[in-house]
Amino acid sequence: MEKGSKKQYTQMAYASSIGIGMVLAVFGGLFAGHWLDNKLGTTPFFTFILLLMGVVAGFRSLYRLIKTYFKDEQNVIRSIKSEPHRKRPVPAKA
To answer: Which pLDDT does position 91 carry in this prediction?
Structure first.
């Protein structure tokens, strides 16, 4: 296996884990809240609370994954700032 293709497969695996993690957290919270509401008779309360907790958990896992696998962010920031379109002059007022 070539080194470049191995890196691409690794990046695709990270991207898919981000998507799967978000979906599982959100729908897991939604399902658990709906189940609790049916058991306790509090129709929108637990569904809403656990859905919000699922969204927060999904974004938290996304943040942790990005912090873990992209530790070398300063190189990315430097390369973005050095792009030619970033150094355009400020447009003159009409």
So the answer is: 74
Rg (CA), the chain: 21
Average pLDDT over residues 2-21: 77
22-55 per-residue burial string, b: 16 or more CB within 10 A, e: under 16:
beebbebbbebbbeebeeeeeeeebbebbbebbe
User: Rounded CA gap, 39 and 6, in Å?
Assistant: 48
Contact 50, 30 (CB under 8 A): yes
53-78 pLDDT, tens digit each: 999 999 998 888 777 776 655 555 55
Give me the pLDDT at residue 28, please.
94
